[in-house]
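dumping the sequnces here before i forget
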Amino acid sequence: MVLFKRDKFFSLKDMNILSVENLSKTYRSGNRELTVLDQVSFEVEQGKTLSIVGPSGSGKTTLLGLCAGLDVASAGSVRMDGKALENMNEDQRAGIRNQLVGFIFQNFQLLQTLTALENVMVPLELKKRKDAKEKAKELLVKVGLGDRLTHYPNQLSGGEQQRVSIARAFANEPKILFADEPTGNLDTETGEMVENLIFKLNEEQGTTLILVTHDLELAAKTHQSLHIKGGKIQEAIHG
Amino acid sequence: MVDWAWSIKMARREFRKTGVKLILFVSAIVTGIAALVAVTSFGDNLSKDIDEQAKELLGADLLLKKNQPIEFPEIEGIASEHALEINFASMVYFPKAGDSRLTQVRALEGDYPFYGTLETIPVNAESDFRSGGKKALVEKTLMAQFDAVVGDFIKVGNVSLEIIGALQKVPGQTGITATVAPAVYIPMDQLEASGLVQYGSRVNYNHYFLFPEPFELQALIDENKELWGEDRVNFDTVQSQKESTGRSFENLSNFLTLVAFIAVLLGCVGVGSAVNVFVKEKLPSVAVLRCLGVKALDIIVVYLVQIFFMGLLGSIIGATAGALLQFLLPIVFSDFLPVEVTVQLAWGAIGMGIVTGVMISILFALIPLLKIRKVSPMMTLRPDDQSTNIGKDPLRLFVLAGIVVFILLFSFFLLGKWDQTLWFTGFVVLSFGALWLLAMGVMKAIRTFLPISLNYPVRQALSNLYRPNNQTVSLLATIGLGTAMIGTLFFIQDQLLDEVRFADKEDQPNMLFFDIQSNQVDSMKTVLEAESLPILQHVPIITMGVSEVNGLNKKENEDLEEEERRSRSFYNREFRVTYRDSLINTEELVEGELIPYTSASDSIFVSMEEGYAERNHMKLGDEIVFNVQGRPLTTYVGSIRKVNFRRVSTNFLVVFPDKVLDNAPKFHVLITKTKDDKASAAIQNTIVRQFPNVSVVNLSMIVETLEDLLGKIGFVIQFMAFFSILTGILVLISSLLISKFQRVRENILLRTIGADRKVLIKINILEYLFLGSLAAGGGLVLSILASFLLSFFVFEIAFTLAWQPLFLVFGLITALTVFLGYVNSLNILKAKTMDILRT
Ligand SMILES: Nc1ncnc2c1ncn2[C@@H]1O[C@H](COP(=O)(O)OP(=O)(O)O)[C@@H](O)[C@H]1O
Ligand SMILES: [Mg+2]
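..and the predicted 3d for all of it:
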C-alpha cells in the first residue's frame, strides 16, 4: 500500500494538477450521520491518468464530484492547479471548471434543446472563443459525427450522444477531465469505441484524466488506480 | 456581471425548442392585459370626451337653482339667453295603459339646452314642443314601460297632454338616472293648470343662462357667490359639472381597472406556476451548464430573456385585443354614460398595459427561476437523487416583496389614496394567501391522512394532487379567486334585493302616499278605508330652515376657525320635520328622552337622528333656532334617536313634540299595506285619478327599479368578472397542457401495471372533481367573507347567505373544471408510449 503524502510546503511547488488531502464527506439524515468518504488522500500529476474503481455505493461518484468542485467536502482539501477549491464559492468554482475542467457523464447529459454542434460550442463560447463553431465542427468530425451536426440529442443513439459529450468535454482543451462511468450506459462494443476515443483525445491534448469505472480492464489502462470501498482507499496502484 | 451576449444567444437557441411551451405560459396574461388596456383606454377616452362635451352636459354656461321661486333680473340682463325649468316629482297617468308612475316632471320655458339638443323621435317634436300647448315629451324608457306611442295622451296633475315625441337624450342624463327618475317635459304654460305646485311639493327652480362671448363667468360668480349662499341658491358651471362628472367616472374607471388588474394578477399566478413546472423540467440542463462553468445568474438570464419576450408578446396580443375590445365597452356601459364616448387608440393605456404585463410576468417568473441559483452541479452525477435538489432561497422573499410593492404602487397609481390602496392590496394578498394555505393544507392532509382502504381511483386521484410538479396551488388560486369575484357579485346583488323584498314579507307597509294637502287628508282616508286598507301611519310634515345654532347664525358660523365651524349645509338645509310624542317601530332612543310640550311656557325639545347629530356635532341640550315660514322657533336637542332607514316608512332627522306645530302650514303622508301588487296598482290608480297632486311610492316599484338598476350594474361587473374566469380557464388549460408530459408518463406507467382506459379516465375526472370543488369551495368561502364585510361596512345591511347562487356557482365552476380535465384525459390517452422515450 502506497500513500502519497507530502508536506504542504512541498505541494506548493509540485507539478500535481490535483491533490486531495484527508477528504471526507458525511451526509446527515435526521440525526443519523453517514460517512460516505473517509479521509481520502491522493495526488495526480499533470498529464497522467487515474482510475477510481470500487463496488457500487462505495463513494466513487462522491469523490469525483468533490475533486471536480461540484460539491463541498465535510473536511479535507482539494487543490486543483494549485488552488484550494474549498475556499471558493459556487460561482468561483464554476469559473475554474470552465477554465480547467471537462466532464463526461454516464448518462451523457447533453442539453436537449441544443443541436450536437451547439452542445459542443457551449464551453467554447463561454471562453469567448471566436472560432467556436469551426473548433466544434472539427471536434465532431474527429469523433465521427461530422454528418450529425444539426441533430438534436433525442435524434442520436446513446453511443452517438456520448461521442458528442466527449467532443464537448475536450472542446475547451481542459487540463483535467472527469469521467463517471462513461461506458456504463453503453453496450460493450460501443463502450470500447468510446473508451478508445477518450484515451486518444486525452493523449493528443495531454489532458489529465480521472476516470470512474468498475471495469478493471479499463482501469488497468491508466497510470494510477485507486480502489475504494466503504469510502476508504483500499489500495492505490501506481502503474 | 451578466454575460448578456452569451445568455441571449442561449436564449435564442433554447427558444426554438421550448418557445411553444412558453407561448402557452404567457397566454394566461393575455386576457388580463386585454381587460386592463380596454378599461384604461375607455377611461382615457371617457375623460377626454367629458372634457370636450362638458358644455352639453350642463346645456348652458350657468345654472342657478333653488327650491323656491326666485328671479335673477340682473343676470338675465347680461345673459344672451335665459331658460327656466321647474321640476318636481309627480305621478303621471297613462290612460291607455290605465297605469301611473312616479316621474320627474319638468316644465320648460326658453330654449334650453343652449348646447346640445333634446333629442327626440320624431326629430321635429322638439320644435313642436317649444311652440307650446297641451304637449309633452316623454322619456323613451317610460313610453316603453306603458306601451305608449306618439299621439297617446298622458295626465299630469289636472291636465291631459299629448305625447308628441319620445325623448332619446337629455343633457346630463344617463340610462341610470332615467331608470330611477324618468323625465317628462311639459311646456311652462301648462304648469299652472296641472295644479301640482302646492305647499310641500319639492319643487326645484332651475335657471339656465347663456352668455355672449367673450364673458368673464368667474368674475360674475365671485361677485355673487356670497349673495347666492345667503339665498340658498346653488350654482353649476360647465367647469364644475365637468369636474363632478369626471370625478364620479374616475371612480368607476378606477374600480374597473382594479378588477382588470386582478385578472392580470390571476394570469401571473398562472405564469408563475407554469414557469415553475418548466424550471423543474429544466433543472438537469441547469446542472449541466453549472458543470460546464456557467454562473447561476447567467442561466437565470437565459430564461428571463425568453420570458421577457414572451411576456412582451403576450402583452402585445393582450393590448391589441384590449384595443379592439374597447369598441364594445361603450355598449356595455351605455346606461352609465352622460356623454357620447369616442373610441380611439389610447397609446398611454396600451403602453401601460404592455409594461404592466411584462413587469409582472417577469416578477412572477422570478420566483421559480430563483431555484436555478440553488441547483447543485452534483445533480449531473446523481440525477435521481432528490436531496441534492433545491433548498429555499432567501431571495424569494425579496421577489415576493417586490410583487407586493408593485401591487401597492400600481393600485396607488389608480386610487390615489393610501387607505384604499392598502385595503385593496391587503385583500389581494390575503385572498392569495388564504387560497395558498388551503392548497398547502389540503396537500398536507392528503399526504398525512390518505386512508389506504380507499377505492383505488379515488386514492390515486387524491394523491395526484400532491404529485411532484403539481399545480394544485396555482389552480386553486386562479379558479378560487375567479369564483370569489363572481360569488361576491351574486351574493351582494341578491342581498340588496332581498333586503327590499324582505319588507314585503314581514307585514311591513308597502305603500306610501305623499304631497297630500291638509284639506285632502280626510277624503283620502275615506277612499282608503272604503277599499278596506289600513292607515298604518299618518304623518304631518312641515318644512323649515335653521337660522341659529347655539347662538350663532350662518354668518357668524362662517367666521369661526375651521375646526369649530359647523358644516354650511346644516344652515342651508331645508328640514322636513314631523311632530309626535312617541317613537315609531323603526326608531330607537339612544340618548335623552322625548319631552312633551304641555304649555306655552315650556321649552321645546326636539329629537335628532343619531348619524346626523354625529356628523354635525350636535349633542343633548344644544340650542337650535328654526325658521318656520319666517317665524323663529327656539328649540333644544332633547333626545337622540337611531333610525332604521331601510323600511318603507317616513324617516325624519328632526322630530318635534306634539302641539308645537299644530298651526304651521303642512302637508301629509299616509302609509298603508296592500294585499298584493294587484291591489297596489288598483288603489294607486284610484288615488291618482281623484287626487292628481298626490304622489305614490309602492314597494313593488322600488323593487322593480332596484332590480333594474342592479341588473345594469351587475351586467358591467359580470362583464369584468368574465375576464377573471376566462383567465382561470386559460391557466387551467395551459397547466393541463404543460403537465401533459408528466401525465402521459404516469398514465403509461399505470397502463403497464394494468389500469385500463376506464380507470384512467375515472382517475382524471376525480382529480379534477377534487380540484374544481376545492377551488370553487375556497373561492366561495372568500366571497362569503367579502360579501359579509361589504354588507356590514358598505351597505350596512344584515348578512344572510343566499344558498341558491352559492350552489349554482359551485356547481358550474366544478363542472367546468371537470369538463376540461376530462377532455385533457382523452388527449393524454391518445399519446403513444414512444412519446416518453423520445423526449
Ligand atoms: N445526498 C445523499 N444523502 C445521503 N447519502 C448519499 C447521498 N448521496 C450519496 N449517498 C450515499 O453515498 C454512498 C456513495 O454513493 P456514490 O458516491 O454515488 O457511490 P458510487 O458512485 O461508488 O456508486 C451511497 O451509499 C449513497 O447512498
Ligand atoms: Mg457512481
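The beta strands of chain A are 16-29, 32-45, 49-53, 75-80, 83-84, 101-104, 176-180, 208-212, 224-229, 232-238.
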